[in-house]
Structures are given as structure tokens and as C-alpha cells.
Amino acid sequence: MESMIIFLLGGAVGAFVNWWSEQSQDIMRQIRARDSFFTSLFSMLGKIAKADGVVTEPTIKLINNFIENSLQLDNEARRRVITVFNQAKDSSLPFDEYAKKFLHSINQLPEFNERKSETLLNIVGLLLQISSTNHQYSVKQEQMILSAVEIFGINHDLYQQIKTGYYPTFQDHTKYYQILGCTPGDSIEDIKKKYRRLVQDYHPDKVLSKGLAPEFVTFANKKFQEIQCAYEAIKQERN
């Protein structure tokens, strides 16, 4: 009987040890995930804040407000995330790597299971808010945000709707990019190449030389004017 009790106790202790080991591993995974959550988040913020070379005063105020009022971090945590922010803004690691790490950390945290999509949308909104603090469109920041949108699996049309809240005139610019067959992430050199090809294709002299029907000539002339207007609007936006 005594040997049976020892055997049963041994089995119970063994089961408890296995359970505790699994629980400890799960707890440690969550601790690492939470650490990665804040590290990757403030790394993204650092990269996008300095995308154009300088972190402006309005951006600094926005980040501080986010830390103090939205996250309500204590002094130690505040110092830590600011350190992460400062290190990331000068890091050679690309923005999309931090976005991937952020998504991975969210997938590891059970509290985000039911509000993962909402959280990712809020982060994109925060990135847009930072990019709009200087009231000037930035191609580099747009490229970073678009990479996050793709990594997070956010519908592009939904992103466009969110963006118009920060850039009210963005819808018009979207139309101009579509006319030239470009995207906001394209370089001005690529846009210029596409513009020149379209100008060549729809130039009134070239269209007339083909002997097309009057309605086609009218269409081509209208298209040529749209191309010119779109390119001028994009140039003005980039400047």
C-alpha cells in the first residue's frame, strides 16, 4: 500500500511539474510577446517619424501625448520606449521588419484574440496621424504605411477610407495617380516615365496623323488634358 501511495504521489508530482512547466513556458512566451509588442510598436513609430530625415516638434508632441495619455506608462516604461524609439529611428533595419515583429507579438497575446483587427487598424491610424502632423504628404512615410497595411492584411479600400480622415484631399490625388497608372508609392522618376509615355500616346498631333474618327480624336484630346492635369497635380503635391 505504501509503495502504491508513493507511486501515486510520484505520478501526481510529475503531472504537476509538467503542468507548471507548461504554464511557466506560456507565461514566459506572453512576457516576451508583450515586450516585443512595445519594442516593435515604438520602433515603427521611430522609423516613420524620421522617414524624411528629421523628427519634427509636432511629431514629438504627438508621441509624448500617446505615451502619457493613451498608454499611461510609468516613468520607467516611458524611458524604455523612448530609448527604443530613438534607437529605431536611426537603425538600418527596415520598417517592414518591425511591422512583421509587431504582428507576430499580437498573435502571441491572448488579450488581442477578439480585437486583433481593431488593434491593427488603430495602429495604422496612429501611423497616419504621425505622417500628417506636418500637414505635408510624404512619399517615404506612405511607402512605410502601405507595407504595414499589406503585412497586417488590411483591405486596401478600407485603408483609403481611413486615410481620407487624415488627408482630406487624398482622394483627388488618388484619381491623379490612377490616370497616370501609378501609385503614391512610386518614385517621381517612375511617374515621369509613365507620364511621358502617355503624353506620347495621346498627343493630339499623333492622334490626328492616324486618321481616326472624330469621336476618338475628341476622346484622345480629353485624355491628353487629364494626363497633363494629373501630372501637374502630383508634381505640386510632391513639392
Beta-strand share of residues: under 5%
Indicate the radius of gyration in whole angstroms.
27 Å
Name the helicity range: over 70%
Mean pLDDT level: 82
Tally the structural domains.
2
Task: Note the gap between the termini.
Answer: 88 Å
Apparent shape: elongated
- Number of helices, counting only DSSP H or I runs of 4 residues or more: 11
The biggest beta sheet is recorded as: none
Question: From the helix content, strand content and strand pairing, which structural class follows?
Answer: mainly alpha
Unreliable runs, pLDDT <50, ≥5 residues? 5-24
Order of helices and strands: HHHHHHHHHHH
**What is the β-strand count?**
0
In short, what is this structure?
With 239 residues, the chain is mainly α.
What does this structure look like?
This protein has 239 residues and is an all-alpha fold. It has two domains: 35-167; 188-238. The protein contains eleven helices and no strands. The chain has helices spanning 2-49, 57-71, 75-89, 95-108, 116-131, 139-152, 156-164, 170-180, 188-202, 204-209, 214-238. α1 (2-49) packs across α3 (75-89) and α9 runs antiparallel to α11 (214-238). The longest helix has 48 residues, at 2-49. The chain is elongated and about 75 Å long.
Task: Give structural attributes.
mainly alpha, 239 residues, 11 helices
Task: Please give the structural blueprint.
Layout (H helix, E strand, L loop, with lengths): L1 H48 L7 H15 L3 H15 L5 H14 L7 H16 L7 H14 L3 H9 L5 H11 L7 H15 L1 H6 L4 H25 L1
Helix pairs in contact: 1-3, 1-4, 1-5, 4-6, 5-6, 8-11, 9-11
